[in-house]
Amino acid sequence: MPHVLERASSARAKCRGCGGKIAAGAWRFGESLPNPFDEKGGEMTHWFHVTCAAYRRPEPFLDAMKAAPDIAAQLEDRDDLEREAALGAAHHRLPRVNVAERASTGRATCRACRTTIEKDTWRISLVFYEDGRFSPSGFIHLGCVAAYIETTAIVPRVRHFTPALTADDLAEIERGLLPA
Question: Which domains are delineated in the chain?
């Protein structure tokens, strides 16, 4: 079964990208994967909000958009979604970007530079996609984003996955991404 873009028929599905409910009637992306629990080789579908899919699963999302251009044309913010997914496909570590937060302790080590992330400084948490789920995989300094992710275009993702950020927080994060 191919990946699918459709309107949710009910509000029972939960997004694999952000963990939130997918509202009835909202656009959603379904990623078709082999079912490891089916001895007959069946498939299962993991559901995502379309924005979460563009950010977290860019290649399958782009495949679904190309396979159903008439449906993709109906998506709100289609051009933005396609641009963000293409950016994620081009930079293989970009879909790992999760949330921006202040370090609660001074014990975490940056995955990029291997130094300690000081308490109360901004850090980006990362996730890996393995076996159909997202697993926490550490943190990076804001200043290490360009070297580790190979782009600093993370603000839309950070804003999406960290909705509690204020405009001042986002401005501070953007400044932290600039080269010193």
Answer: 4-90 (3.30.1740.10), 94-177 (3.30.1740.10)
